[in-house]
Automatic annotation (TrEMBL):
Family, similarity comment: Belongs to the 'GDSL' lipolytic enzyme family.
Organismal lineage: Eukaryota, Viridiplantae, Streptophyta, Embryophyta, Tracheophyta
Pfam families: Lipase_GDSL
The name this protein goes by in its record: Uncharacterized protein
GO molecular-function term, one example from the UniProt record: hydrolase activity, acting on ester bonds
Organism (species): Asparagus officinalis
Length: 353
């Protein structure tokens, strides 16, 4: 068999292998739409219309995707239920953690999105103190002090900061972004957390939305059709974030901060798309306008005139900004491979503590 196909099959299988955490796994996640399992739509009170969610869960869930997100695949690996959004008042299950990620969130609040990373951390602290308070009063099935201590804290934010950074003082904004991620980890650590998993930001200049709106001429593009300046901006953020993770690893006694290079995973997926069985790596499945990007700012995925690719097609981009379930599955399997992490340890490392 073709060696590329073999590795693709092995990768796909990795997602379905289950960790040995047993029932101990607890995750608290912070971030933006890349890991929002419904917080934004719960918070603002709306439903995401089909075809959004057409593969999973076939009904509005607030995930900006055709199906599952990377965090959903990571929960499947841990054999725990998908993370309920902190703001979802009905049907939620917080026995194995909670999701504070909100679509559109950045490390700083802005007019249409107050759910910045520091606010998400405050929500977590409130969640923790209420859990402990209610447990002391005799409530059952809530996470206790040990659970909070041994939980994994995952952070995946920065993409929306890049939008802001390119519209303002870039270097200033990147410094603030990285500093806020550092503060978030420090604050959770000060409140007893010790296991952290940080995703860097993906190749911003490869988002079909960005390329279609920002491309002036072909010299703006790299060999794969991505915007060079925007990708360099993402790399600058990641370079600083990586350094901050190293710093925290040596400063915070007994803590582990794993930095995972999502940029390289996603860039490889786009650059080598056909090896992974994908087509048209820079075209949105769901949008308007057709090739090359199928993106139109005024007719976005989910609006009445938008059109989606057929359900069996293999796109990387779902709506021009967010990845498809098929791409997310591949990203999750790469994360589980440990190959892109520093230090290079398994995703379920926190269970053995
Ligand atoms: C996954 O969890 C379920 C209970 O939720 C359990 O019955 C099953 O054995 C677990 N699978 C593995 C492989 O641990
Ligand atoms: C950003 O931080 C770096 C140090 O990490 C510093 O050299 C640089 O001057 C800062 N930039 C701004 C605009 O504050
Ligand atoms: C960017 O911000 C830094 C720090 O606040 C400042 O020193 C620098 O002059 C600013 N640059 C521009 C172009 O505004
Ligand atoms: C593209 O932009 C570059 C730099 O802005 C410029 O030097 C070049 O002439 C442009 N090429 C075309 C074909 O317009
Ligand atoms: C680190 O772990 C050791 C061994 O469990 C413990 O004695 C020590 O108090 C811990 N330090 C902090 C800051 O938690
Ligand atoms: C594409 O795949 C090849 C072979 O696995 C690898 O060496 C290369 O780094 C990949 N390209 C990118 C941009 O990741
Ligand atoms: C978006 O679609 C509308 C309606 O067809 C069209 O008028 C407009 O030119 C399109 N915009 C772009 C940038 O293609």
């Amino acid at each position: 068999m073709n060696p590329v196909l073999v590795s693709v099959l092995l990768l796909a299988l990795a997602v379905f292998v289950v960790s040995e955490c047993g029932t101990k796994a607890i995750i608290f996640n912070f971030g933006d739409s890349n890991s929002d399992t419904g917080g934004y739509s719960a918070g603002l009170g709306f439903n995401t219309p089909l075809p959004i969610g057409r593969l999973f869960p076939h009904q509005p869930s607030g995930r900006l995707c055709d199906g599952r997100l990377v965090i959903d695949f990571l929960c499947e690996y841990l054999n725990i239920s998908y993370l309920s959004p902190y703001l979802e008042s009905l049907g939620s299950d917080f026995k194995h953690g909670a999701n504070f990620a909100i679509s559109g969130a950045a490390t700083q609040a802005y007019a249409t999105n107050p759910f910045s990373l520091p606010v998400q951390v405050l929500q977590f602290l409130r969640f923790k103190s209420r859990s402990l308070h209610l447990l002391a009063q005799g409530s059952k099935d809530l996470i206790n002090e040990d659970g909070f201590m041994n939980a994994l804290y995952t952070i995946d934010i920065g993409q929306n900061d890049l939008y802001g950074a390119f519209a303002s003082n870039f270097s200033d904004r990147i410094n603030i972004t990285v500093n806020e991620i550092k503060n978030a980890i420090q604050t959770i650590y000060d409140h007893g957390g010790k296991n952290f998993w940080v995703h860097n930001t993906g190749p911003f200049g490869c988002l079909p939305e960005r390329v279609s709106l920002m491309k002036k001429n072909n010299s703006d593009l790299d060999a794969y059709g991505c915007l060079i300046t925007l990708n360099n901006g993402a790399k600058e953020l990641n370079f600083k974030l990586s350094a901050v993770c190293d710093e925290l690893n040596s400063e915070l006694e007994n803590a582990t901060v794993v930095y995972t290079d999502i940029y390289s995973v996603k860039y490889d997926l786009i650059a080598n798309s056909s090896n992974y069985g994908f087509e048209s790596p820079l075209m949105a499945c769901c949008g308007f306008g057709g090739p090359p990007y199928n993106f139109n700012m005024s007719i976005r995925c989910g609006s009445t005139r938008s059109q989606a690719c057929s359900i069996n097609s293999k796109y990387i981009s779902w709506d021009g900004v967010h990845y498809t379930e098929a791409a997310n599955a591949m990203v999750a399997s790469k994360i589980l491979s440990t190959e892109y992490s520093k230090p290079r340890i398994k995703f379920d490392y926190f269970c053995s503590a």
